[in-house]
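User: Please work through this fold.
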Amino acid sequence: MTSHLFRIVPVCLMTVLTQLTSPAPAQDDPLAGQRLYADVERYASFGIHRYGTEGDRLTTDWIADEMRKAGLAVEFQNFALGKQYFVDKADVTIGAEKIDALPFWWIPEDKASFTLAAPLAADDGDASGKIVALHLPYDRTAYLADTHKQAIASAAKRNPAAIILTIDNPGEDIFAYNVAQDNPPWPVPVVVVAANKRALLTQAQADGKPVTIAVTGRYGKNVAGRNVVARLDRGAADTIVVSTPMTGWFTCACERGSGIAAFLALARMIGATQPNVNVVFVATAGHEVGHGGMEIFLHAGPPPAERTLAWIHIGASVACYDFAKNADGKWITEKTLDLRRLLTSSASTAPLTDAAFKGQPFNRAITTDKAPPGELREVWGAKYQNFFGIAAGHRFFHNPADSVAVTGPEILEPVARGLAAAVATLAEKQRAALDNK
């Protein structure tokens, strides 16, 4: 690849940036906040977005259709992941209160559906025939780690009938960690309840009364999934790759929806502006259960690294509001931006992102010898040298409460315009490089 492209800054570039970072008067501006938000609402309308679910299928069909409307050539990249667990219903009853629960991936296969009533065990010692209440502190991570595995393994050695887990998180709700396909099932059933139910469990433990866990679910093997791959072939020497994940634990309105809205906006913008580069868009499935879709794409003939002008990854929670509790204990927002956003780039694209996102609040990281977060780690591992991406958490990250109320038009639009400015910059640099040959 021609690395000198990142050193050429034509004078006309400032005009391009100004045009793309300022709202266009056209009602159908693909980068307009209201249009972006409508896409978030459409994404959220499909419900739970776990890999292999109906919500996953509907999302994939919708994104493919929108890409075709934008003028791109679209194909599905079909694949299968070895396993997925599908839960229909899960709850825990403590006294007169029934609370929502989520089986913690991966639940034992012979306990895909079960009902159990037993008292909570003491904090240590043998727990045979009882339920252990286990708590994990907030650690700001999204992936199941060795520390989590060790804590659950230690609790399981006490021989309980099941484990009820609470995990501290900013939203105080049920929290789920991303897992890998090769993670083995837990030795006993583990179910997660909201972090704010910890005191209720403590009281139940003191009372010694039975607690009931009821789960209905099933395992699927070799579960089918699809990536959406959309292309614009301009006959250029180099290609821009734009990627985003589609799947997640719950409705994921801001975690996934905000990035997918920006992803679709870029496709519409590029289809209309005819950039001087080839562009490949890939929306990947299987993020929460092993990054399967990204791995498949990277092993199925992606644009070669040496001919990739830049890889842009639009990851989690690109534009979300922060929330705080009011005097009544209810979550409210003043429509302020959640600042837990990370803009990661290779050293080569740092000047590009500095210009494109100027004035926007991001935590910044330049990747050299350490893998970046999320699916960008696979891109880095595949030796793509020019890349950048956005990844973040937010208050209701990996929570059931991640709804359309967590984002809004006025915070979605600046991110989309920044991404569009970066693409325009890349196209203008390629044109300048060609003109100077």
Confidence is low (pLDDT under 50) at residues 1-26, 433-437.
